[in-house]
Design brief:
Number of helices: 21
Shape: globular
Helix content: 40-55%
CATH superfamily of the largest domain: Glycogen Phosphorylase B
Distance between the termini: 17 Å
CATH class of the largest domain: Alpha Beta
Structural class: alpha/beta
Number of strands: 18
Strand order of the largest sheet: 3-4-5-2-1-6-7-11-12
Strand content: 15-25%
CATH architecture of the largest domain: 3-Layer(aba) Sandwich
Number of domains: 2
Oligomer: single chain
Radius of gyration: 23 Å
Largest sheet: 9 strands, mixed
Amino acid sequence: MKKQFRSILNEKGRKELPNILLAAAECAPLSKTGGLADVVGTLPKALKKLGFDARVITPYHRCIKDKYASQVEHMFDFYVNLGWRTQYCGIERLELDGVCIYLVDSEFYFGDKIYRGGQAEGEQYAFFTRAVLDAIPNLGFRPDIVHCNDWHTAMLPMLAKTQYGGAMQSSLRWLLTIHNIAYQGKFGFDYVQDLLGVEDKYYTPEFMELNGCADFLKAGCVFADRINTVSPTYANEIKTAYFGEGLEGILDARSHELSGIINGIDTKVFNPYTDPVLPARYNKGRLNGKKLCKLSLQRDFGLEQREDVPVFAMVTRMTEQKGFDLVERMLDELMQYNDMQFFMLGSGDKEYESFMREAEARYKGRLCAYIGYNEELSHCVYAGADFLLMPSRFEPCGLSQMIAMRYGTLPIVRETGGLKDSVKPYNKFTGEGTGFSFADFNAHEMKDAMLLALDCYHNPEVMSSLVRQAMEADFSFDRSSEEYAMLYLWML
């Protein structure tokens, strides 16, 4: 056990590290739609290295049954009361990479989509909330801290403290991590009351009411013992009206109980030296494989095979949040006057998808728009591109910039949230940097950052130095897990 852990435990009058139960709607590699799954799938493994018993509880989604059913062990089952409804719930156990994962089984709620959208999604995760609380006493594992993630599990501390007694109130501690404050789980109070039996007195601005809705995330922010988010900068940003989405008041009031821990990535999965899907492997000392990955990407997707032209890429949802307004405003100007190629991998708003398809037709051989998502292809893009563009209006953490640096692809980011915390902008006087950045959400500032990157590309000495520095940056979960460990200990 690390000395600093033992010291805190002594202060708290404890001998053993706390048991951690992470509750989340998705968990990689079992189920995944975004970065939340990566965090929940990777953090317990990193905590285990530090001596913690960290386990996960997550819905038994159809996509998990299809792949892992033969490895799952049934533990027990019961019925969940959800308002006037009574629904079957099974608790299954899966051991994966040394981590125990409890799966909440309900074909009715989790037999199709991970997220159903609208009120149906509210009912999905109201059921999950109630099921988790009813299951905890019977798991044969006593958590000290339940680590909730996003609005889907944010009602756990509220219901535990207002509807349950015993250990739920006296000994359990509740941590809420906000991965993206834009998604809060807002529903009519009558609907929430019907599902979860919340008392009238909690439908006030002091507790869970926001703009005429019952807000799951707000309830979590009020009742959790500590609040965390996924980067230090984002933790400060969400205390302001511009980023706070209506929750800035409660977050500012609880700023002494609000922290930001930047996410990490699974460095075993994202490793250009061992990645099985790449056409060639490489590391920071031998970069010839990266050149081959670039030529392969160009060949396979109809781009001119040219080493002397940089490939700018995006791997992202095509939404306003991700800065597509800036891309739409500036792409033609960049492509017309500069010798560059552009690769787009992602999907999203139809307006942006149509724009990229039309741009591909205009710049045949210089621009590829792959509308959709392909995990293996994303690895090839990270390896084959020279620069990764992330001009986000806001970005709680972001993982793509970390993955890109791992593959020697330099990110170009707006200075917001985790992008600001993880990318060190190029300094032309010292030569230091792991990428490029711009401050304001402005198309011309984005263009200037891209042109600076273009200039660096044509200076091999500068470019190779930046690539090496980017690949040396440490974004493993080992660093993040130690910060989480300290947070858990101080919560005891």
